[in-house]
Amino acid sequence: MPARCVFLALRIATGQPDPKADVLKAEAAFTEAKMTNDVAALDRLMADDFVEINQWGQGKRDKQEMIALFRSYHTLSLTPSRVSVRVFGGVGVVDGVMEESGTWTYAFLRTWVLRESGWQLVSCAHIFPVDPSTMRVIGQPTRAPRAGVTR
């Protein structure tokens, strides 16, 4: 058995924390809370000093603005891919690609911090891919939002 597998098995057997897995669990909980409009979960997962810039470039949103948004914002799906996690002590950085409601795709970058209550999201940026020669969005959005989906 390769040394890496032995170490992972030992970590699981001894109950040692796996910060990357813990950040991914928080990330999944954040996505689920947005999908189900669970504002109580969003309140727990986002730090009081949270800030977001969305893919539409509509300025910054703070925690209270995000909670207000997800009281009424409905999306059909959020499908992450190419997700990578890096942990630096008590800071987790997650990046990847998100497909939202089968309508548009954007890159995302999120920063999580480990606090007494667990991992909390402090910042989030969503970015549509841009052709640097024209500064135009590459194929985004792919089509108009579906019925019941707002942005």
Index terms:
two-stranded antiparallel sheet; disordered C terminus; disordered N terminus; alpha+beta; 8 strands; Nuclear Transport Factor 2, Chain: A; 151 residues; six-stranded mixed β-sheet; 4 helices
Please give a structural write-up.
With 151 residues, the chain is α+β, with helices and mostly antiparallel strands. It has one domain (18-137): Nuclear Transport Factor 2, Chain: A, CATH 3.10.450. 31% of the residues lie in helices and 38% in strands. The protein contains 4 helices and 8 strands, in the order H-H-H-E-E-H-E-E-E-E-E-E. The chain has helices at residues 3-14, 19-36, 39-45, 63-72; strands spanning 46-53, 60-62, 78-88, 91-100, 104-115, 118-127, 130-131, 136-137. A hairpin with a 4-residue loop joins strand 7 and strand 8. Helix 2 (19-36) runs antiparallel to helix 3 (39-45). The chain is globular and about 50 Å long.
CATH architecture: Roll
Q: How many strands appear in the DSSP assignment?
A: 8
Morphology: globular
Number of domains: 1
What integer is the average pLDDT?
Answer: 84
Cα radius of gyration in angstroms: 17 Å
Binned, the helix content reads 25-40%
Strand order of the largest sheet: 2-1-6-5-4-3
**Which sheet architecture does the biggest sheet show?**
6 strands, mixed
Instruction: Quickly count the helices.
Output: 4
Short summary:
The chain has about 150 residues and is an alpha+beta fold.
Structural topology:
Blueprint: H1 3-14, H2 19-36, H3 39-45, E1 46-53, E2 60-62, H4 63-72, E3 78-88, E4 91-100, E5 104-115, E6 118-127, E7 130-131, E8 136-137
Parallel strand pairs: 1-6
Antiparallel strand pairs: 1-2, 3-4, 4-5, 5-6, 7-8
Helix pairs in contact: 2-3
